[in-house]
Each structure stands twice: as C-alpha cells, then as structure tokens.
Amino acid sequence: MAANILLVEDEPAIQELVAVNLVRAGHQVLRAGDAETALRLVREALPDLVLVDWMLPGMNGVELARRLRADERTRSVPIIMLTARGEEQDKITGLETGADDYVTKPFSPRELVARIKAVLRRQRPQATDDIVEIGGLQLDPSTHRVTAGELPINLGPTEFRLLHFLMTHPERVHSRAQLLDQVWGDHVFVEERTVDVHIRRLRGALEATQHDRLVQTVRGSGYRLSADLGVAPALGVE
Ligand code: CA
Questions:
Q1: Range of the domain at 49
Q2: What's the CA-to-centroid distance between 3 and ligand 1, angstroms?
Q3: d(CA 43, ligand 1 centre) in Å
Q4: What is the 14 CA–ligand 1 centroid distance (Å)?
Q5: Strand pairing partners for 4?
Q6: CATH assignment of the domain containing 46
Q7: Neighbours of 88 (CB within 10 A)
Q8: How remote is the CA of residue 57 from the centroid of ligand 1, in Å?
C-alpha cells in the first residue's frame, strides 16, 4: 500500500520519527511544519491522507481540519489528528472538526501505521493493495496486473492508476478536474484534455475483451465506470 501522506507536525524530532516510519511502511510523505504550509501543499496536490498535529504554531490542527472539511475539493481527504491531549472532551472536539481518527502521543509507530491503513481502506481504496473486480475485469495493485478473465491486459502506469481509481469508485461520475486531483494528484498544471487522452488509451487497451464499454462518458460531466452496460448507449459511450 503506497499512499501520499501529508504530515503536518512542527516538532522536528517527531516529524522525523513519523516520516521515517511512514516511508518504511511504503508511503510517500510530504512534510509541513505549520498549517499554512500544509494548505499551500494541498492546493498544489491532493494527498491521500493528512496526518496533523493538534498543537501547531499559528493556525492549529483543529482549524486546519475545519478548513479542509469546508472546501469542496478537500472535503473527502481523510484526516488523522495527532495530539498529546488525552482527555475525552478533546477527543470529541477533534472528531467533531472532521478528523477521521485520533492518535494520542506517545504512540507506537506500528499503531499509527495500522490506523492509517484502516482509514485508507475505508476512505481511499485506491491507495490500498486490495484486489478489485468489476464486470469480469480484475485489478491487482500489489502485482500491478490487470486481467479480463484469463487474458492479461497491458496498461501504462497512468492508465493503471486511472482504472484503479475508477474501479474503486464505480457508478459515480467523476469530472476531469476530480480525476486530475485523484489520479494525477495535480489539478493545476495538468490540462483537463490530458484526462481524455488517457481515457482513450485505457479504452483502447480494454477493447479486445470489450471491457472498454465499462468506461463511460457522461456528457458535460465527466467519466464513470459502470458494470451496468444497459444504460451505456444513452450516455454516449464513444
Ligand atoms: Ca506540535
């Protein structure tokens, strides 16, 4: 499981300890020493999870969590709060601001990694190694293999990530901007047309087994992956 984790912690020793353990667990870590830096990094690329210390200089972790929850674009990014506080009321406040979980210092790195894994599995299935299967199409993130029945399907790395995201979020329509955020991690510098190019390549790779029909264009909105082919023609599958 490799997720992009934004770590917001002002104490260098703790930041280092946590980062080392996350990298060891296979994650990519982006670090910020304060909430303002964290917000700037989030504007550039959407992380899979934000790990934020409650006590930060300037804007605190609770306020940062509140801001991430208030913004449409960052609303669904999982947040785990790190804190020295152990009191029940603080825990409730932390969860009320929108944190998905809460880890009290001192914590064991192993516990933290396990909690991150649990939150990702619940909310960021595209960042886990769980095998997904839809409409006879199977994708295995750990071996990077896609198969249709017994037939292997060769995909480039971007098409693989795109298919993984679509398969872990089926039946929902994703705009090009959302796909750029979720698959490319960048909605600022990559053009929306890029999405169309990779959707076309993905469909091309899936054509031989007719699984290209799973990838549907929803006119004026974006793309969706659906095993329900009955409604596809009306949606304008290209
Ligand atoms: Ca702190």
A1: 4-127
A2: 23
A3: 22
A4: 9
A5: 28
A6: 3.40.50.2300
A7: 8
A8: 7
